[in-house]
Amino acid sequence: MSMLLRYVLVLAVEFGAALMLREPDAPWIPVLLAVFVVGSGVLHGTEAEFVPRFLVALTAVGVAELVGRAWASPDALTTAGTGAAILLAVQTLIMVRYSLRRRRPRRRPA
């Protein structure tokens, strides 16, 4: 259940950012920074270390940017849509792998 909530949260943030980025004069730096922060924090409470969190955050930024471009111009729909689909697949694999793992109890030193 927590994996589904994590995934829906990231998708909602990516969708909102894509809506904001489709305007030509949109403030893209704060929008993509917010997507990166949410993407890196979504695996909190799992065994995910720096690399998986960073990958999820980067793919979230990439999806938001590509979907925003696809909505902005119909000419870029196939290339941006294909790229966004590939990034979503990578993001889903990372999130499923680390969200379904159980935390191992830490061993106490003797």
Question: How would you explain this protein's 3D organization?
Answer:
The protein is an all-alpha fold. Helix content is 73%, strand content 0%. The protein has 4 helices and no strands. It has helices at residues 2-21, 28-41, 50-72, 77-99. Helix 1 (2-21) packs antiparallel against helix 2 and helix 3 (50-72) runs antiparallel to helix 4 (77-99). The N and C termini lie far apart (36 Å).
Summary tags:
110 residues, mainly alpha
Q: Uncertain regions: pLDDT < 50 for 5+ in a row? A: none
Radius of gyration from the CA trace? 16 Å
Q: What is the mean predicted local confidence, pLDDT?
A: 84
The helical percent reads over 70%
Helix/strand-derived category reads mainly alpha
| Number of H/I helices | 4
Write a compact overview of the structure shown:
The chain is mainly α and 110 residues long. The chain has helices spanning 2-21, 28-41, 50-72, 77-99.
